[in-house]
Amino acid sequence: MKYLTTLVLSALLAGQAGNTHAADRNVDIINKTGRSLTHFYASRVGANDWEEDILGKDTLENGETFSINIDDGTGACRFDFRAVFQGGGELVKNNINVCEISTFTYRP
User: pLDDT (tens digit, 9 = 90+) per residue, 42-87?
Assistant: First the structure.
């Protein structure tokens, strides 16, 4: 299984630079949808937009995993996830508690 480089959401993502009280939230995202995942977003619950595409130019093929460190500097535990797939379609999962999980699997 290909393991992509750990990606970090910086404190600047949420405009909260300087808050050192927030712990890192490491989550492995696993793609078991049968499709290529081309974009992935994680935004704190209540945010007005999806922030930046965490995958950038990479893709997450079926069966692959990537690790993200969701550290937006706020200490927040609850995030919304959005996965966009090659050829269209997306899956949005709301209110994921990244303080309580270490893996999150996208399934069809």
Answer: 999 999 999 899 999 999 999 999 999 987 788 899 999 999 999 9
Residue (of 67, 55, 54, 53) closest to 104 by Cα position: 67
Q: Which value, in Å, is the radius of gyration of the alpha carbons in the chain?
A: 13
Number of structural domains the chain divides into = 1
**φ and ψ at residue 14, rounded to 5 degrees:** -105, 10
Q: How many Å apart are CA 71 and CA 24, to the nearest integer?
A: 5
Pairwise CA distance, residues 26 & 47, whole Å = 20
CATH code for the domain of 60: 2.60.40
Range of the domain at 42: 3-106
Q: How many CB atoms lie within 10 A of CB 17?
A: 11
Three-state secondary-structure class, residue 56: coil
Has residue 103 got a pLDDT over 70? yes
How far apart are the C-alpha atoms of 100 and 106, rounded to whole Å? 17
